[in-house]
Specification:
The protein is an all-alpha fold. The protein contains 27 helices and no strands. The protein has helices at residues 7-14, 18-41, 45-61, 68-77, 79-92, 96-112, 118-132, 144-164, 174-196, 205-218, 236-261, 266-285, 296-316, 336-359, 385-395, 402-423, 430-439, 444-472, 476-497, 499-517, 523-545, 550-578, 586-606, 618-638, 648-673, 683-697, 711-729. Helix 4 packs antiparallel against helix 8, helix 17 (430-439) crosses helix 21 and helix 22 (550-578) runs antiparallel to helix 25. It is elongated, with a radius of gyration of 30 Å. Mean pLDDT is 78; it is low at 1-14, 314-334, 369-374, 609-614 and 705-709.
Length: 734
């Protein structure tokens, strides 16, 4: 039997990180400096209260990440929003119904602002508090200047503390992760080029490089990246970094496919070597101070390889040429799949380089996306930032959007809490809203799980508060001396020990604050317990009434919809490439569905769920939809419509394979909707993949009646085979 961990081990596990302790010192210093200056130095209790809670709002409730200068700059940028919220709350406090309506509007607007990226997500709770605090009685618009003075002082002191007290270096950003992944893929591509050139790698070198590349690519998953580091904003830079990550994840399997198919093929060796150089240039260009990469060499090599590949395949069918003059790579059966894998990896590297250029605000080549073919994959590089933000906000105004639903849930819960606090005339009613805001989660299960420790911690903290108030009585100096150490302990131990400790210690903190503003008895602790219980109950009811199962409820439905729309995109793409159909918007719909599904999956990763459940590998399911879109885009850009198959027979074969792949996507979607447990992949998927692989491993396709060899048909077939591989991975453990 496994031994239970001792006390030392348990303490080691809950020991707060240095960053947490440093942040607690900064917040405590800023809050206490502002509070004591206004309360005892200038005798302005209103300003003292707002200075303290402004520092707590942005320092504790909000999540402001980055370097010290970045955090200070973010805090200063919030000053106009803080002034507006304090003014609005002060004016609407005239009536409970007006304050509640304002709370609904502010709650929705601030929460919905999270679609703008992780910085808005981190600031949301702190900004909510800056409206909650002034929207309660007493209604005193004449105190507005003092309130604004306090908020301004609190935020300025917090920004100064970020710069002066233990300024921390900038944490590793997403650009660094991308750079390491691109460099690892470049090393793997070098080995693939050597293999195609007939140079054997050292034993274990390929396995080691492949494992390193997989690990680096795995670091790009949003589920492995802290929320504040994710490039999820609406601007062109964040979109380009996200595209860069998707292109790297697409390129990795192509390089591994080259290694699996490797045989002497000088053309593929040369193209793969240039691919490695492009990936290495992208890795160097991802840091903001690095050189901006270019695709000129890769573009020329791609064009030359595509021409040479068609010529080589045509010569393979030339029966008049002596057999003994055939070069090694053309002897026997030529494997077009190797050339296709080299071409796909190079296309992926070119996409990576162009995404890096957009992320560095560098111009794309004039012929990147002709005006008559926009929008292309980099459509956002041509639009101004305000338009990009507007499109992001407009696209999420739908009940299918996680951000929209969370905003509605938050607005409804906070509005109800404000009505309840005003209707019952609760003392210190803003605690009700604060409890609702901090304890409500995106699912009822998560809220219920957080509820009990929070209530237990609040009750214990209230008991300790009552004991302190009874023992000390009306001696403000004692409370003034006790506030800094208690606040420091609360903000340090709370994040490390959980919500029970956090709520209990914060109860003691607010008691020490309010006893310095006005005489208080032990009933202050009673009011705190009642208000927190009321706020928690409202948060729980909101979770039960509005999408109670959170992201887990709709992830299955949304992923099934993504697979169905991907099936339509696959069928339409092949029809366009073979000249048997016209674009109908299926690819655009699949691309939009991918964005919504990624957002829902990100929320699902933040919720509690049973890891031993019978659900499929959700990450693989989302990647299957991503690869359907990311693979179709370069094919449509490289292959002119109607040229994938130069004769009707080849077009019929490709369409049949596309129908089989689309049917496999739809079967998987139906299985998700029916909640079938994850198990072996559908036999039809295995049969379809076997048929595709048999054709790819067989002789080269015969030329058409016009003498053209349908190498583009091989490109499409390789893409379809890869999609079937993605579907099979859905049934593997996540």
């Amino acid at each position: 039997m496994r031994r239970s961990p001792g006390r030392a081990e348990r303490l080691r596990r809950v020991r707060p990180a240095p960053a947490v302790a440093h942040r607690a010192v900064r917040v405590t210093a800023a809050a206490c400096a502002g509070f004591y200056t206004f309360r005892y130095g200038l005798d302005r209790p209103a300003s003292a209260t707002y200075a303290l809670f402004a520092a707590i709002a942005l320092g504790v409730l909000a999540r402001v990440e980055g370097s010290a200068r970045t955090r200070a700059r973010t805090i200063l940028w919030t000053l106009p929003a803080a002034w507006a919220l304090v003014c609005l709350g002060t004016v609407l406090a005239v009536h409970s119904w007006a304050a509640a309506l304002g709370m609904v509007g502010v709650g929705f607007a601030v929460s919905y602002g999270s679609v703008g990226g992780p910085r808005m997500v981190g600031l949301a709770n702190g900004l909510q508090l800056l409206y909650i605090l002034p929207c309660f009685p007493p209604y005193s618009p004449e105190a507005l200047p003092q309130r604004l003075l306090g908020v301004t002082a609190g935020l300025l002191l917090l920004a100064a503390a970020e710069l002066l007290l233990w300024p921390e270096p900038a944490p590793p950003d997403y650009r660094g992760r991308l750079s390491r992944a691109a460099h690892a893929l470049a090393e793997l591509a070098d080995l693939a080029a050597d293999a195609c050139a007939g140079r054997a790698a050292a034993p274990g070198a390929v396995t080691s490089a492949a494992d390193r590349a997989r690990a680096r690519l795995d670091e790009l998953r949003f589920s492995r990246v802290p929320v504040m580091e994710r490039p999820a904003g609406a601007g062109a830079v964040d979109r380009a970094l996200t595209h860069c990550a998707a292109a790297l994840r697409y390129t990795g399997p192509q390089v591994l496919r080259i290694l699996r198919l490797a045989r002497p093929y000088p053309g593929a060796a040369q193209l793969t070597a240039v691919t490695a150089q492009a990936l290495r240039a992208a890795a160097a260009g991802l840091p903001r101070a690095g050189p901006v990469p270019d695709t000129g060499v890769l573009d020329r090599e791609l064009a030359a390889f595509d021409t040479a590949r068609a010529f080589d395949t045509a010569r393979a069918f030339d029966t008049t040429r002596a057999a003994d003059t055939a070069p090694p790579e053309r002897s026997g059966r030529l494997r077009p799949a190797l050339g296709t894998a080299a071409l796909d990896s190079a296309e992926g590297a070119r996409f990576v380089v162009r995404a890096v250029r957009v992320g560095r605000h560098a111009a794309l080549p004039p012929d990147e996306t002709p005006a008559d073919q926009r929008p292309g994959p980099f459509w956002y590089a041509y639009d101004p930032a305000p338009l990009l933000w507007w499109r992001r906000f407009r696209a999420n105004l739908t009940p299918r959007s996680v951000a929209f639903r969370n905003a509605l849930r938050t607005a409804g819960a906070l509005g109800a809490a404000r009505l309840l606090a005003g209707g019952l005339d609760l003392s210190h009613g803003f605690w009700v809203l604060l409890a609702t805001l901090t304890l409500m989660r995106t699912s009822a299960a998560d809220t219920r799980t957080t509820l009990r420790p929070a209530l237990v911690g609040t009750a214990l903290g209230a008991a300790a508060t009552a004991a302190v108030l009874l023992a000390v009585g009306e001696h403000p100096l004692v409370y003034a001396l006790a506030l800094p150490p208690v606040m420091l302990i609360a903000f340090t131990a709370g994040p490390a020990l959980g919500p029970a400790w956090g709520q209990g210690l914060f109860t003691l903190v607010v008691a020490l604050v309010f006893t310095q503003l006005a005489p208080a008895s032990w009933r202050l602790a009673e009011a705190r317990v009642v208000n927190v219980a009321a706020g928690a109950a409202i948060g729980l009811l909101a979770g039960l009434c509005a999408w109670p199962r959170g992201g887990a409820q709709d992830l299955r439905r949304r992923t099934a919809g993504l697979l169905e729309e991907s099936a339509d995109a696959v069928r339409e793409t092949v029809a366009v490439l073979t000249g048997t159909g016209r674009p109908g918007g299926a690819l655009r719909r699949a691309r939009n569905s991918t964005l919504l599904t990624e957002a829902m999956y990100a929320q699902y990763r933040c919720e509690r769920h049973d890891p031993a459940g019978d659900g499929p590998n959700w990450q693989a399911a989302v990647l299957a939809g991503q690869h359907a879109v990311r693979g179709a885009e370069p094919l449509l850009a490289r292959i002119p419509p109607g040229t994938a198959a130069p004769h009707r027979g080849g077009a019929r074969v490709l369409l049949r394979h596309a129908d089989e792949v689309a049917a496999a996507f739809r079967r998987q979607a139906a299985a998700l909707r029916a909640r079938e447990p994850a198990g072996a992949a559908h036999p039809a998927v295995a049969r379809a993949r076997a048929a595709l692989v048999a054709e790819l491993d067989g002789p080269p396709p015969a030329p058409g009646t016009d003498g053209r060899v349908p190498l583009h048909a091989v490109d499409v077939a390789v893409w379809l085979a890869g999609l079937l591989d993605d579907l099979q991975q859905i049934h593997e453990p996540g």
